[in-house]
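Hi R.,

Quick one: here's the DUF1559 domain-containing protein sequence you asked about.
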Amino acid sequence: MQQAREAARRSQCLNNLKQQGLAFHNYHGTYKCFPFGWNITGDLNGSGWPFQILSYLEQTALDDKWDSRVPAMDQAAAIGFPAAAATANLEVIKTPIDAFMCPSAAEETIHNYGVPAGSLDTGVPPLDLTWTAARSDYCATSGIRGDFAAVAYASNPATNRSGVLWQTGYGGKSSCPRIANIVDGTSNTFLVGERLGGSNVYKLRKIDATLTAAAGPAQGGAWGDILIGEHWAQGSLYDGSFTGSGGPCIINCSNGRSVGYYSFHPGGANFLMCDGSVRFIPSTIASYTFASLVTLNNGEVIGDY
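And here's the predicted structure, written out as tokens:
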């Protein structure tokens, strides 16, 4: 019975990613490129990739309520934005969206998030920034770095380690990613991967209270979170712990932002490919193969995994 229930939940998770894939391609059909991973301007206004595809996920009514001129954070009025618009935006990001939540995920829907003063400082006075939002269990595959990259490229060095959905705007690249830029092929390149959302940091199947207190609010674990599009994975150790440089485990050891990918599916996690298809990637995948699926123009030959 448990296996049947998990099979149904996994099927719904696959369907969520397929919906997102269709939304991404409809967006590309309109704008001739995929959305940016995340964007932030000099006055701390910003958003991540989920906002760009809302109207393509049958969320036009919610998209219409969003004022892109105002950041969704509790401190928006203190920075100089209209208080009423900021309050309205905060209500928008509290709205749960089924397409962004895996039914296998054992987490509460609404979480408190934030970043310490100076973390996103782009010219305004440093403030602790906070917001409350509905989680997302899917994040951008921005790139790979740290110890995981060192392991992956130990025998096959690569110059480009970035994925498709990356930052644009302030401090980032200024052009949006196009299918034509994906030299490795859209069927061989990740677009979005499963990473348990919320503000709890897991080590294997348990919440780590210390890591959660230190880094949980900055998880980028909500669909309306600026940092949902920032996930340069460095890996963790196989027990889910990690230092500043990461480790060799990339799937189901830790859900830390810019650490690993994480689902409650046994044996792996689901990933959306750039062609709109969805694949279940086993946690035993070779490091080099996983890295090859993240990057978009290194010319790797993808074998079995």
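The first helix runs from residue 2 to 31.

Cheers,
M.
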